[in-house]
DNA sequence: GCGACAG
DNA sequence: ATCTTGTCGC
């Protein structure tokens, strides 16, 4: 029931995908939130090695209590392969199917990957943000592009990630003495807010709760331990 | 040309 | 991402 704007077809070749990114990047807006968010969604996909079937899921939580208030999952197929820099073409199609099953329209969406911390500044969080037309940001577990100085070891510290001289994201410590996560704006949000939201979604683990729960959901789906909701 | 390379 | 048990360190 949640809606989105189908800006373009997903049936493209890698070369066409890069051209689409170049064309879409100008539509991305990096700015503070217009409204204080009450709900946040986490997204993820899972699959069996060498298989084309993908399990996509979205979990919606209240930002104040981190209580899960809705889950949606789908079993789909990914026609596009994983190619560094083109992750959105593999994951967004099935995530949109899960999105369409949501009754709640989340105020902000967190992605397992990057937003502006991308060679063309349009990672999965930014690309999806254009379709969803609402605040989105990325929180990845490793770097695609960019250099940074190691942030201080205590939770909450962060240092800017730079690429060709520009700040594209942040290496953020979400837990004491544990490797940082990499946060970057997707669309309709700024870096500072994305960092604050990531810290607000703390559940005691390195990975913030929205993504962690979405990951658990899709893995349960893949193993047949969970019915499609 | 070589190495890197989100999930 | 996924395949998998134990094990080193705080």
TrEMBL record:
Report the GO terms under cellular component.
cytoplasm
The reactions it catalyses are: Endonucleolytic cleavage at apurinic or apyrimidinic sites to products with a 5'-phosphate
A single GO BP? DNA repair
- Predominant location: cytoplasm
Keywords in alphabetical order, please. Cytoplasm, DNA damage, DNA repair, Endonuclease, Hydrolase, Magnesium, Metal-binding, Nuclease
Q: What is its EC number?
A: 3.1.21.7
Q: Name one GO molecular function term.
A: deoxyribonuclease V activity
Q: Where is this site: Interaction with target DNA?
A: 82
- Locations listed in the record: Cytoplasm
Q: Which residues form a coiled coil?
A: none
Pfam families given in the database record:
Endonuclease_5 (PF04493)
Q: Which residues bind Mg(2+)?
A: 44, 112
Which InterPro entries does the UniProt entry name for this protein?
Endonuclease-V
Domain of life of the native organism: Bacteria
Cofactor(s) recorded for this entry are:
Mg(2+)
Function, as annotated: DNA repair enzyme involved in the repair of deaminated bases. Selectively cleaves double-stranded DNA at the second phosphodiester bond 3' to a deoxyinosine leaving behind the intact lesion on the nicked DNA.
Q: Which family does it belong to?
A: Belongs to the endonuclease V family.
Tell me which PANTHER family the record gives: ENDONUCLEASE V (PTHR28511:SF1)
Q: Which NCBIfam families would you find in this protein's record?
A: PRK11617.1
Q: Which protein, by its recorded name, is this?
A: Endonuclease V
């Amino acid at each position: 029931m949640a809606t989105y704007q189908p800006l373009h077809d997903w049936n493209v070749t890698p070369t066409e995908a890069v051209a689409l990114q170049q064309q879409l990047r100008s539509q991305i807006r990096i700015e503070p939130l217009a409204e204080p968010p009450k709900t946040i969604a986490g997204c993820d996909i899972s699959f069996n090695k060498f298989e084309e079937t993908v399990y996509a899921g979205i979990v919606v939580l209240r930002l104040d209590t981190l209580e899960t208030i809705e889950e949606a999952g789908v079993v789909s197929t990914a026609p596009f392969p994983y190619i560094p820099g083109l992750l959105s073409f593999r994951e967004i199609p099935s995530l949109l199917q899960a999105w369409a099953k949501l009754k709640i329209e989340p105020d902000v969406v967190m992605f397992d990957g990057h937003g502006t911390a991308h060679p063309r500044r349009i990672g999965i969080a930014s690309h999806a943000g254009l379709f969803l037309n609402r605040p989105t940001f990325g929180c990845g577990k490793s770097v695609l592009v960019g250099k940074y100085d190691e942030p201080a070891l205590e939770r909450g510290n962060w240092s800017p990630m730079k690429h060709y001289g520009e700040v594209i994201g942040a290496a953020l410590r979400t837990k004491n003495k544990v490797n940082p996560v990499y946060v970057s704006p997707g669309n309709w949000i700024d870096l500072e807010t994305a960092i604050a939201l990531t810290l607000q979604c703390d559940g005691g683990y390195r990975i913030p709760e929205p993504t962690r729960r979405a990951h658990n959901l899709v893995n349960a789906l893949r193993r047949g331990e969970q019915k499609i909701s």
